[in-house]
Write a structure and sequence with these properties.
60% helix, 2 strands, mainly alpha, 7% strand, 3 helices, elongated
Length: 109
């Protein structure tokens, strides 16, 4: 296999990952990076870490869900994790005021 074939294959796989991530974002909204937070209060990066752990667990145990592409999902979660980290660095977390009276102080959430 020559280098240009390998490079074309790399480009195709990356294009597939991009297509799937954009399709899922259109379908599910921005749920990975801006979750509703109904049960979990974890930040988006930590929530993605949990999803990544779940996917790795399924691969390690050989218990992938029929119809899922666990490997593609894992790659997608890793891409989303990088995006979430980059977005978090661009915008500082909001300040929240805690305490009362003279003991009030602001913290980053």
């Amino acid at each position: 296999m020559n280098p240009s074939d390998v490079q074309a294959s790399i480009a195709q796989v990356c294009d597939d990952v991009k297509r799937v991530l954009i399709e899922k974002n259109l379908t599910y909204g921005n749920s990975a990076l801006d979750p509703l937070r109904i049960f979990s209060r974890a930040d988006p990066v930590e929530q993605l870490n949990i999803r990544i752990d779940d996917k790795l667990s399924r691969i390690a145990r050989g218990r992938e869900f029929a119809g899922d592409d666990t490997e593609l999902d894992l790659i997608g979660y890793l891409v989303l994790r990088r995006v979430a980290r980059a977005l978090a660095e661009e915008s500082p977390r909001p300040l929240v005021r805690i305490g009362q009276g003279d003991s009030q102080r602001d913290i980053r959430t």
